[in-house]
Amino acid sequence: DVKVTQSSRYLVKRTGEKVFLECVQDMDHENMFWYRQDPGLGLRLIYFSYDVKMKEKGDIPEGYSVSREKKERFSLILESASTNQTSMYLCASSLEGLPGSFYNEQFFGPGTRLTVL
Amino acid sequence: AQSVTQPDIHITVSEGASLELRCNYSYGATPYLFWYVQSPGQGLQLLLKYFSGDTLVQGIKGFEAEFKRSQSSFNLRKPSVHWSDAAEYFCAVGFYGGGADGLTFGKGTHLIIQP
Is residue B54 predicted with pLDDT exceeding 70? Predict the structure, then answer.
């Protein structure tokens, strides 16, 4: 079974802190994604990566950055956490799809619930 | 840009009754379609997916979905729900050749099961 793990289930940080959320997948997937999930807004894509050291902005990248130094690991960084970044963060991974497509099934981690005070 | 609509934010169904969750998408290209389920405090689990072929697809936990191109819909169904089906359900859509930007998710439908 594909396994996607996230470093923390719950995290509490203070405004202005630098926050690292880590995600690791064990199935050699090319693609990795970071979403945030908020009530009534569903899942929104923050960043994704289709290869080591490659990254692309999603729909809501402002206030976030990412790092992918190894294929299995994709980190989300909040440079200076703010209260409006309190949310559930979900990491996902998928195999490389058909040429021109990245729409294979995405496998999700359990999520990190981040609270910024 | 493509969009996904799940028109029902909440649905309440009695245990043992049938269920249909609606999903509509907007775009002209050939879609890839997914339904995910999220139990409280958990990540998302894939229920089923449609890429091509038979428009009625079977998934896990007794769920099925039907792709109707003419209606741009991919509704999820289950003939008899169980209390353990109470969860959040997300429809997701991707488009071949639409760009490397992941899936587009609906806002979710919260399913409540009455005893």
Answer: yes
